[in-house]
Design brief:
single chain, alpha/beta, Aspartate Aminotransferase, domain 1, Aspartate Aminotransferase, domain 2, 2 domains, seven-stranded mixed β-sheet, three-stranded antiparallel β-sheet, 13 helices, 12 strands, 39% helix, binds pyridoxal-5'-phosphate
Length: 402
């Protein structure tokens, strides 16, 4: 149970999200709602450009403030954070920076991964001749033990989603991280789903690198993300692209000309190249402040309670839930459906399509992926949202639409 103080803080913050009452919003897995403060921050920055009194040094202060907030969010050092455009860019930066050789292998479960965490590796397969070892999903769950069993002397990396985009279960990244850390294998995590919602801490979990974007659980814009790279790995990786912000300019001006005699920025900063997306940085700042002030441990407890309530309510109605049992796989997403191989297309599943349509017609926002309804929450959701969802689902059941 979230304690009373946290519950009050969470309830108060809901008022900052007009979208939370405009519809019953269970679609953070696609994109999060944005608090009103984001609009104020963006307007302020654009107004400076319109008036011609934009001050770039202030923007660099903003970049470092947000970098610190990212670091706080995941228990990292600020030098372990690199700004990126999105999850794909971060994963490509990490994968290419490893400078793998022909015959090296990387292990992943393509059935459960988003394309963002498949193509960077397939690209290295076709360009360099690495082997991509595809492990079959374990009934919709990340096949952690099979991934470990597939490791051999040529394994250089394991890649895995923190929470899969479908069916939306949490992976046991703790076990994989510890396993890889003991064997000096690079363990890279796509945390697009889960960042800003579930509690992940780099001091506790020895992940090598992790890539996220800001449009989902970080409650901000598309086109910005960050790549975490553990300090000792960052020093071993090489940037494929290099430009001025990846180079240690000391106190010299940012436009100082390049010379042969340069050194890379410490840690993950070496992966940054040219100018930053200042607008997206200003947008994420108020959202990050809210998330960090609540703490992801508190947010995780809150969403787990919502998931529990949702699962119990839907099970009472006899609606099938994918992986309903409690366990570490449970997070902020509830997957409705009974597909077992996670390969169905939504159009293959008329009952789920019909339920999805009914919920959407009743102003409930969610998504259908691979025949499974994905119901995802954040701190702006509350018990009333869950109860309304169950009510609307009950009408669908009573109307015999199954
Ligand atoms: C697991 C996962 N990875 C990656 C992405 C997106 O990647 P990108 O930010 O590169 O578009 C998503 C969703 O959009 C996702 O669910």
């Amino acid at each position: 149970m979230a304690d009373t103080n946290s519950a009050v803080a969470i309830a108060k913050l809901r008022a900052h999200f007009p979208g939370a009452t405009q519809s019953t919003y269970f679609d953070t897995a696609t994109r999060g709602l944005i608090p009103i403060e984001v609009k104020t921050a963006i307007d302020e920055q654009v107004n400076h450009r319109i008036r011609g009194d934009f001050q770039k040094p202030k923007m660099f202060e903003l970049i470092e403030r947000v970098r610190n907030q990212y670091a706080t969010l995941i228990g990292a050092d600020s030098n372990e954070i690199a700004y990126t455009k999105n999850v794909s860019e971060g994963l490509n930066t990490a994968a290419a920076g490893l400078f793998l050789k022909p015959g090296d292998n990387v292990i992943l479960c393509p059935e459960l991964e988003h394309p963002s965490n498949i193509y960077p590796w397939l690209n290295l397969k076709s360009r360099i001749g690495i082997e991509v070892r595809a492990i079959r999903s374990l009934n919709g769950r990340m096949p952690v033990e099979a991934m470990m069993r597939a490791v051999d002397g040529k394994t250089k990396a394991i890649a895995c989603s923190y929470v899969t985009f479908a069916p939306g279960l949490r992976s046991d990244v703790q076990s994989l991280a510890e396993y890889c850390a003991q064997r000096d294998i690079f363990f890279v995590v796509d945390a697009a789903q889960g960042i800003g919602i579930l509690d992940i801490d780099m001091k506790r979990t020895p992940i090598s690198a992790m890539s996220v974007s800001t449009q989902k659980g970080l409650l901000a814009l598309y086109g910005m993300g960050f790549l975490y790279v553990r300090a000792r790995w960052a020093e071993r990786l090489e940037p494929v692209y290099l430009s001025r912000f990846g180079v240690d300019l000391g106190s010299a001006h940012e436009a100082t000309g390049g010379s042969d005699n340069y050194s890379l920025m410490p840690g993950a900063r070496r992966f940054e190249i040219g100018n930053y997306n200042f607008l997206a940085a200003t947008a994420v700042e108020p959202s990050l402040s809210m998330i960090n002030s609540l703490s992801t441990a508190t947010i995780e407890r809150h969403v787990l309670e919502l998931s529990e309530r949702m699962i119990a309510g839907l099970q009472r109605l006899g609606i099938p839930i994918f992986a309903p049992e409690p366990g570490m796989h449970r997070g902020h997403m509830v997957a409705i459906g009974d597909a077992t191989d996670n390969q169905h297309d939504s159009t293959d599943n008329p009952a789920m399509q019909s339920l999805y349509q009914h919920l959407s017609d009743n102003n409930i926002q969610l998504t259908i992926r691979r025949g499974i309804l994905r119901v995802s929450s954040h701190f702006y959701n509350n018990n009333d949202d869950v109860d309304r969802f169950i009510d609307v689902a009950q009408h669908w059941m009573s109307a015999g639409k199954t």
